[in-house]
Specification:
Elements lengths: L1 E8 L5 E8 L7 E6 L4 E7 L2
Antiparallel strand pairs: 1-2, 1-4, 3-4
Length: 48
Amino acid sequence: MRKKVVLACTVCNGRNYTTEKKQLSSERIEVKKYCKRCAQHTLHRETK
């Protein structure tokens, strides 16, 4: 089963992306993605 999570930019804290991850995984996702507000590629982390 998969769980929906929201990814937020670490620079401007904008919540730009949603994704899914496995239910059993307890680690937080960290992905480098493009942020529209910052106009550059930044690190995005999973939020609560």
